[in-house]
């Protein structure tokens, strides 16, 4: 088939398909059909999106709406369409993120861009967020520093033309007026809606948090759903702590939002916020949560450093994954993070600092760019760089600063989200959020809902519409809001970052904490006690909201709860792992998830998620928990099996394409045997967790490959072997040519720990039950013995067959099947079962792993055996 290369910025039928991929004529025709449908349906097109999600960015650009909207469910998209039909407003709001190694000159460059004369700087700690620090000038050719009054404006500003249109639509806007509350509105009593005086908002107090700034960045929440009934940590050692319950009670007062008005953009301000990231490796734990497709990146590289030399300023600690990294490794890490968490085409401006040796000459800078930078990068990352976005700088000169500012302006304007449309009604809600931020950094969702519903002018009629709007503001980084938890809104994300920053004690800031007795536990092992936490936060206002802050950090996988008095902070762990700890242990093969770019944050998040959500606990041996810098050993809920989670950098040439891997290995103490049913369930839980954690990546494609190590042995031992792709293990044996000595891999010995159950279930034929009324609820022992033999003959693992046979009698059935009455009540749901026939028998197995869609009272682990007089086909 003829194929056609559509280059970036090359028009097609008057429109641009911005991609460096090759599109077939069929795909081009598909886009033309989609574009025709968009022309006909307008915004309503998002109600009938195609299955191919790769084309979503083009659809969002064509409709001029936020790309995140396309990820919403159909009901939420319907609500968005209704609000857009009332009226919409374009959003002109950009963000730049300054990244690079420590001491590269990032903060100095920011000061030069602002026009500061004083270039004295201190090393950045954490992330410094400068909201609306720049704006486009009158002809939009460059950026200039914003006055303080302009910095206070929201990202959704009404222009005079939009205001005129808004006034015309006021009487017909469905979001306005005193309309009846929707049935799904939470029960808010009359007394709770009675206006009350809120002293907390009428005048500032000494307990108000001093660190406040606006934010315009994205934080992705990758946590699984948390049970709303779970109680946050309550530490008895914290006399000053304000628990979530007390905090919510304190704010159970009505706050009048009627005087909130949208920001007015009479000068047509088009804003740019900027983030200055710390270059020390200790802070990398929270950097990735700010990366988004909406950002432009400025990568600062110190020209005086040989790219092949070790970047000692970034990590002075030995035996860490970063310890021996060169400057080239850090450049690959930053660009890899952008590629993963922002987008595959996110523009990067390369700022070559300390370029005195070449006089900041543009031509020589390009030679350095091509001969040094590009030569050290894989081809996937080169797409982020461009000759037109390369600039060299001297510390004591402003040379090339003007050109950089012009290029930054043109780059921001070229992004897909520039000028996207959102409902007009959301402008007033943003104003309300900013007003709340004046007096508090956090606010209860329930109280905000009450206030919003009592303010018709905000144009939000019910809880769902508020959640939709807050989700947008979360996705654009204005607030931090988790819809699935729906408890507290963080109005100032810088406040959360500053709180976490106090827990990250890198080499530069350790000296300020040396007097703390428990400091070494945190600094070396990542163990944070309640007593130490109070000490670290005692000079700030964070201690008043300790439980709420800790809860949010848990949900962002920044830390895990070990006990009510202790937490684990992964990025602080500097302990070295030794395979000797697995001596006298039976170990499984190693399941591997391979990545192109370092997934260290995914490794941290996976460990934290297993502790927080899968009820695992760190294994303790000789009085110490077995969690190390690159390895964590957790004990499963049965208190017998343990799971090792490790991260590897595979430098061998055979792993060039996917050099990093997160690896899973189970172990038990000898002479116990590993239960393959438990490990098969473990692979399901961990695979789902990793998939969930990578959903925040820059595309909908899977970003990892699954495989297995070719040799058996403890993680980190002498028999490491190589990773074999899962799809290659489809026979009984496999010849491994990757190892220095060729050897034959017994596939069964590798997969038996992970796939016994799955393979057996998939080998059974799907059954159709036509006579559910013939189900036998009390089979006798002789019949049970016959069915058990049939299960084993069909390939069922013995322990699974034993467990299934225990579930053949109604006494062991789940509550929805236990009595004749409950079975008759649930009769209509039987057709939803996925059933597999036991060969040669009028019996089926209903496995839990295939029936997750069924109610909990109709299924149980590992499954059910149902016997029938007849009616199984």
From TrEMBL:
**What superkingdom does the record give?**
Eukaryota
> E3 ubiquitin-protein ligase NRDP1 domain location, by residue?
755-873
Q: Which InterPro entries match?
A: COR-A, NRDP1, NRDP1_C, P-loop_NTPase, WH-like_DNA-bd_sf
Q: Which Pfam families match?
A: COR-A, USP8_interact
One molecular function GO term is: ubiquitin protein ligase activity
Q: Where is this region: Disordered?
A: 168-205
Domain (COR): residue spans on this chain: 423-569
Under PANTHER family, the record lists: C-TERMINAL OF ROC (COR) DOMAIN-CONTAINING PROTEIN (PTHR47679:SF2), PROTEIN TORNADO 1 (PTHR47679)
Q: What is the protein name given in its UniProt record?
A: Uncharacterized protein LOC111120466 isoform X4
- Organism of provenance: Crassostrea virginica (Eastern oyster)
